[in-house]
Amino acid sequence: MKQLVLDIRPDTPPTLENFVAGANAELVATVSLLAAPGTAQQLPGRHIYLWGAAGSGRSHLLRAAVAVARDGGRPAHLFAAAQIDDSLPDTPNALVAVDDVNRLGAEAQIALFNAFNRARGNRQSLLLAGPSAPLGLNLREDLRTRIGQSLIFEVQPLDDAARATILASLAERRGLRLADEVVDFLLRHGRRDLASLRNVLDALDSASLERKRAITLPLLREMMQHGLEI
């Protein structure tokens, strides 16, 4: 499975193909199976719960799975926790994705519990995401139990090799070349989430164009002296 993103700009629609899989190849394959029309029944329980730190890609995966379902002609619904009141759609054969389940209010928790109860009868699949394993969720006990009976995946963080390759891919798309020492410096001293790395690359790109200089460590240090936060 291809494991490196080729386009992760904010305006690029999330897909399973442009998710940076890293150590999450099995997770991505299972989410794809859950979302695709006619294949969810191959999974035990027909439901998946994803958990991981902020910025790990949980929301990306939910949005991408909903896109897979809809592209295949399957009904699909995506909700942030704050959007749910006292009910969820009972659309037959639908994929229902709920992000940030830890933020569900009291009525919304009942709605999700009811969705679990009727899922077998209406052939729905639930794809849920939150910041911690089920035992760490501040939810009513019966709902936590149902979530805990789903297939559970922790979204694993990227390693430095994957981050370095992603930076190189992003730079190449812009016609830039990042010196290895720049990449090493950013990964050693900067924030390591992809959004921050992308923002630094944007700044380096602009500075390189304005000053007609290659992106090197001296340029990066100069920009840091003028306020660039990495």
Label the structural class.
Answer: alpha/beta
Mean pLDDT: 87
Strand order, largest beta sheet: 2-3-4-1-5
Cα separation of the termini:
31 Å
Gross morphology: elongated
Provide the gyration radius in Å: 20 Å
Our count of helices gives 8
Low-confidence stretches: 1-11
Helix content: 40-55%
β-sheet strand percentage = 5-15%
Oligomeric state of shown chains: single chain
> Number of DSSP strands?
5
The string of secondary-structure elements, in order, is HEHEEHEHEHHHH
How does the major sheet shape up? 5 strands, parallel
Question: What do these coordinates show?
Answer:
The structure is a single chain. The protein contains eight helices and five strands, in the order αβαββαβαβαααα. With 230 residues, it is α/β, with parallel strands linked by helices. The chain has a five-stranded parallel β-sheet with strand order 2-3-4-1-5, with helices on both faces.
